[in-house]
Amino acid sequence: MKDLVWDNILSVGIDEIDDDHKKLIHIFNILNRAIREKESKEYLAATLDELINCTVWHFSHEERLMLKHRYQQRAEHKAEHQELIQSARELQQEILQSDNPFTDEHVQFLERWLTEHILTTDGRLGTYLSNVM
Questions:
Q1: Chosen CATH of 12-132 out of 3.40.630.10, 3.40.640.10, 1.20.120.50, 3.40.50.300
Q2: pLDDT-based confidence at residue 16 (cuts at 50, 70, 90)
Q3: Could you tell me the CA-to-CA distances from 71 to 7, 78, 84, 96, 121 in Å, in that order?
Q4: Where does the Hemerythrin-like domain lie (predicted)?
């Protein structure tokens, strides 16, 4: 798989959120390269853990902004965050219990997991925040 490249299409128009997203893409790319280079299972697990932990932090950052600016779709957005973290943790468990840690399907899942949320749900949040900040 190719690395993800930050592009304006991924921008939600709020610098602090975009900065978080850039960091998440950077960690995804570290993981992606580590998979291609066949790094140790322990290193891959640590990198995936970093990606998940940074995502959890980022989601709490977004949720704080939603509270501060009284975002009407906060409950739905937060529920999506919880589903995304749950699916990533399930993938993490699957990988940790496997002899062949990462497959192309795992990488594609993580890429979609990251970009689809940015392009849809976070895009709507960015539009809202752009109007109220």
A1: 1.20.120.50
A2: very high
A3: 26, 11, 20, 37, 12
A4: 13-126
Alpha-carbon distances, residue 87 vs 36, 81, 129 (angstroms): 23, 10, 27
Structure-token match 């959120």, residue found:
17
Long-range CB pairs of 107-115, under 8 A, 24+ apart, other chains included: 107/1, 107/32, 107/35, 108/1, 110/28, 110/31, 110/51, 111/1, 111/4, 111/28, 113/84, 113/87, 113/88, 114/4, 114/24, 114/25, 114/28, 115/4, 115/10
* Beta strands per DSSP E along 22-129: none
Structure tokens of 85? 């973290």
Does this model's pTM top 0.85? My answer is: yes
d(CA 35, CA 103): 9
Residues 16 and 43: their CA atoms lie apart, in Å, by 29
